[in-house]
Amino acid sequence: MNNYNLNDFYRLIGDNIKKTRLEHKDSQETLAEKIDMSRGFLSQIESPGLCVGVSLDTLFKICITYNVDIRDLFNGFEEFLNKNNSSS
User: Residues 2-24: pLDDT tens digits?
Assistant: First the structure.
């Protein structure tokens, strides 16, 4: 069994959420209101220095809000797996 560094994966998802939000020209506060989340928690998810997991419910809400495929929020996951598999 591989011991992935899930913190890197959480950062990847947080980065993709932030990128998607900015592409739609929303502030953290606006997105947080749209998906019924506190702005502070969204800030933690997007922060590169913190590693906060995100529920599937939250991911689905973001996808519905921005009409994006959930795979967009996992962009870079294949590279993440390859990097972690090659270092084991």
Answer: 556 788 889 999 999 999 999 99
Residue carrying structure tokens 């998810």: 45
How many residues are given for the chain? 88
Any idea what the CATH number is for the domain that residue 69 is in?
1.10.260.40
Rg for the chain (alpha carbons), in Å?
13
Is residue 1, in this structure, part of any structural domain at all?
no
- Contacting residues for 83 by C-beta, under 8 A, at least 6 apart: none
Domain count within the chain: 1
SS3 of 68, please? coil
pTM above 0.70, yes or no: yes
77: enclosing H helix or E strand: helix 77-86
